[in-house]
Amino acid sequence: MSFRTLYDVQQLLKRFGTFVHVGKRIWDIELMSSEIRRLYEGGLIDKQTFIRVQLVLKREHRLEEKKQEEKDRSK
């Protein structure tokens, strides 16, 4: 499976019965990262999948931080 978007990561987590919705997108991303780490440490996903997913999550996290900074500056 290829991982390019946050939706792809959500679908992977869903396969393991994990649904993440905290309310704020950046919090969702952080929780997903934690859950992915637990899957990797538990041997449920391989290293390559772990790395690809973490790259997607880090990119999405940076985008959310940038969006928040822009929002804060416009106040």
From TrEMBL:
<dbReference type="InterPro" id="IPR009256">
    <property type="entry name" value="YqgQ-like"/>
</dbReference>
<dbReference type="InterPro" id="IPR023164">
    <property type="entry name" value="YqgQ-like_sf"/>
</dbReference>
<protein>
    <recommendedName>
        <fullName>Cytosolic protein</fullName>
    </recommendedName>
</protein>
<dbReference type="Pfam" id="PF06014">
    <property type="entry name" value="YqgQ-like"/>
</dbReference>
